[in-house]
């Protein structure tokens, strides 16, 4: 049975560049990038994205160095099929001195 992760929003709680903008890439663990965003501390980005999965889905957040195009992993979260019917949930990406909240639900 295929489920969907409905990604609602990404909130920048603490950015790496506290005075400027973090350039971010959001992707599945298999490398499929589905969103690139620029965020300052306190920003909220509406994702409005449905991602199909079976069992579990790993979402990876990376920061992109605009000078070199190199990516640094910020962290990852795992969305599981057991979360079906639990309503909106929030997990945190934390690493490299940053903190981002991802809100989603499994449908």
UniProtKB/TrEMBL annotation:
- Kindly provide the name given to this protein in its UniProt entry: Phage protein
Q: Which domain of life is it from?
A: Bacteria
């Amino acid at each position: 049975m295929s489920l969907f992760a409905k990604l609602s929003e990404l909130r920048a709680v603490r950015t790496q560049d506290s005075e400027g903008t973090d350039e971010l890439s959001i992707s599945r663990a298999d490398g499929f990038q589905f969103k690139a965003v620029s965020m300052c501390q306190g920003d909220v980005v509406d994702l409005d994205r449905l991602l199909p999965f079976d069992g579990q889905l790993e979402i990876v957040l990376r920061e992109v160095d605009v000078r070199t195009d190199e990516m640094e992993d910020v962290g990852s979260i795992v969305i599981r099929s057991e979360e079906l019917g639990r309503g909106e949930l929030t997990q945190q990406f934390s690493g490299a001195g940053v903190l981002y909240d991802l809100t989603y639900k499994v449908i």
